[in-house]
User: What shape does this take?
Amino acid sequence: MRIVLLGAPGSGKGTQSRQLLERYRIAQVSTGDLLRAAVAQGTPLGQAAQAAMSAGRLVEDDIVLGMIRERLREPDTAAGFILDGFPRNLAQAVALDRLLQQIGRPLDAVVQLQVDYAELSRRIAGRRTCVDCGRVVNLTTTPSEVLEHEPCPKTGKPHRLVQRPDDTEATVAERLRVYDEQTRPLIDYYAAQGLLHSIDAEGAVADVARRLQAVLPHD
Ligand code: AP5
Ligand code: MG
Assistant: This one.
């Protein structure tokens, strides 16, 4: 199964990817996670990406496409993959089509996660990530015993929760603007290819996961 999850910042792409990879045993390919890892390691790629990320703008296409090309060569993507946060503009979508055609692994579906603007802002404001294991939680919906007492699988101690540096109000506003301007056009692009499914991505995580699985092609 090869799918793209399309959705605004905070729409639940990362959260739903993790549900899917447990169920289908396919790889999650998140360009945001790959870029954050490169920034944290201080690689040349990370240094080139950092300014755009902290301003909420898109990182250059060449950087992101190079990363995707490399990632899709890794063996864990052979059984399938979920693209989370990629493609994000028309040039990336066209380049992805070309790449997947070259390697004979076309997309099976593109799912758009629909969440209203006020809910996106609420979700992003409450998001926290464990610095040690990467678990993503939300201050408003994750049970307090998880937030305060659940042992981190990496340290055995409670999670050390931090806010993502680009989750400040000003950067979020820019990320949402960039989504509307550059990523939203992909909805029509994939609808024209007959690949698009749009689902209501509000409500409990498990309910959204059920709606998502219902639109995916079955074996
Ligand atoms: P990226 O990391 O992709 O960020 P994003 O697209 O802005 O999306 P988010 O990660 O913020 O949200 P999400 O949809 O994953 O939601 P999540 O599941 O965490 O990109 C970051 C930056 O990297 C970009 O701004 C850009 O600079 C650069 N970049 C990345 N890809 C690029 C590309 N292809 N080209 C160029 N630049 C690129 O959920 C959010 C919160 O809500 C969490 O707290 C979660 O617990 C909670 N939540 C999830 N589902 C629910 C639910 N059903 N109910 C209640 N709460 C929920
Ligand atoms: Mg994400």
Remarks:
- The mean pLDDT is 95.
